[in-house]
Amino acid sequence: LMLKTVGWRLILGFAGIYGCLYLYERVTWTNKAKERAFKKQYVDHATKKLKLIVDLTSANCSHQVQQELSSTFARLCHLVDEATHEMDSEIKTLERQVRMLEEAANSAKVLRNKATYLNKELLIFDETYLNNQD
Which residues belong to any copy of the Fzo/mitofusin HR2 domain (predicted)? Predict the structure, then answer.
């Protein structure tokens, strides 16, 4: 039935073309061709695996770098907090010392004024009572 519908020449033509292609594949599929195909498959397989390894390694490296940066940032923040606290306490201590020195300076000024007043009073007393007796 197939012979009558399509035609025996057409079927024979396709069979001939198929046979030629089969024969060409059979002739060219030598050990050298098999070796080349195997090497190409191996290179493709190794490339895929190496890409997976590189992606995994870079992801792990990126994660590790991120962790290192986070821990370093946390340590730096802690150090800054400690330094700020120390500086605040030193500032408070220095402010107390400045206040005490200002109070001492004011007291010294008052005492100097009193000493100057007493010195003038003594000079007046000396001129009034002691120098008149000569």
Answer: 1-130
